[in-house]
Amino acid sequence: MDPQLLFSLTFPLAAPFWALMILAPGWSVTRRVIGSPLIALPPALVYAALVLPQFGTVFAAVAAPELPGIAALLATPAGAAAGWAHFIAFDLFAGRWIYLDGRERGIHPLVTAPVLVLTILLAPLGLIAHLLVRAAPAAVRRQAGLTAAR
């Protein structure tokens, strides 16, 4: 398939799930939809469509990774599109975890929303931000003596 077409499809396949988590976090439909790990499947299928035809080349590059080989792999339209689909699929999976973890821990949606936006743009930084937010209430509880000693 055409790498440009697949590249162009990747984020729009994930965007509705991000919109639900950020704009309608308390809606019962959001909780039900985001509750499924299958939300990451559409961009993962785009990734598969790009990687499987080149499986031998891709597998060789990632089985014994070296910077020049990975750079060469990503320096093609198909490689860049596959990298993008990989990012989008795993960013969405991480965003799903952040959303679910934040809800479980009672983190206010107005705190989680900017973390999710950061995750869309720069996922590892969004993950770090969530982990910091997640740790803050535990630190406050420890300081107040409300957490049992280990």
The unreliable regions are 144-150
Question: What is the tally of helical segments?
Answer: 8
- Strand residues, percent: under 5%
Sheet/helix structural class: mainly alpha
Shape: globular
Largest sheet, in brief, is: none
Could you give the order of the helices and strands?
HHHHHHHH
- What do the pLDDT scores average to? 91
Kindly give the count of domains. Answer: 1
Query: How far do the termini sit from each other?
Result: 55 Å
> Which value, in Å, is the CA radius of gyration?
18 Å
Number of strands: 0
In short:
The protein has 150 residues and is mainly α. The protein has helices at 3-23, 28-34, 41-51, 55-63, 67-74, 77-104, 109-121, 123-143. It has eight helices and no strands.
What would you note in describing this structure?
- The chain is mainly alpha-helical.
- The chain has one domain (3-143).
- It contains eight helices and no strands.
- Helix 1 (3-23) packs parallel to helix 6.
- It is globular, with a radius of gyration of 18 Å.
- The chain starts with a helix and ends in a 7-residue tail after the last helix.
Q: Any descriptors?
A:
globular, 150 residues, single chain, disordered C terminus, mainly alpha, 8 helices
Annotate the secondary structure layout:
Blueprint: H1 3-23, H2 28-34, H3 41-51, H4 55-63, H5 67-74, H6 77-104, H7 109-121, H8 123-143
Helix pairs in contact: 1-3, 1-6, 1-7, 3-6, 6-7, 6-8, 7-8
